[in-house]
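A reminder from the course coordinator: this example appears on the midterm review sheet, so study it carefully.

Given structure:
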């Protein structure tokens, strides 16, 4: 159906840069999502994942319909787990 939900897919990112351009904090969303997808959480920290406010603009403009907004909280949770581990 055609509701307000945005369809997502697992299509590859092709670095169009729209997500980066629309990000209010100029985060490298393309890299953050890819690092999150491949469990490279340390790299997410290098690219300032904590600055993300999860506004959703990146997902809205993503041509590949990647679940960008889902990758950020996922990576944050994993980073917290890593930090909490003895």
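Designed residues:
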């Amino acid at each position: 159906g055609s509701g307000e939900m945005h369809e997502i897919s697992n299509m590859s990112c092709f670095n169009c840069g729209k997500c980066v351009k629309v990000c209010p904090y100029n985060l490298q969303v393309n890299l953050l999502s890819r690092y999150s997808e491949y469990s490279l959480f340390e790299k997410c920290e290098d690219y300032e994942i904590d600055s993300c406010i999860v506004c959703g603009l990146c997902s809205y403009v993503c041509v590949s319909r990647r679940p960008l907004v889902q990758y950020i909280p996922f990576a944050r949770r994993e980073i917290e787990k890593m930090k909490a581990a003895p």
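DSSP finds five helices and no strands in the chain. The CA atoms of residues 32 and 44 lie 5 Å apart.
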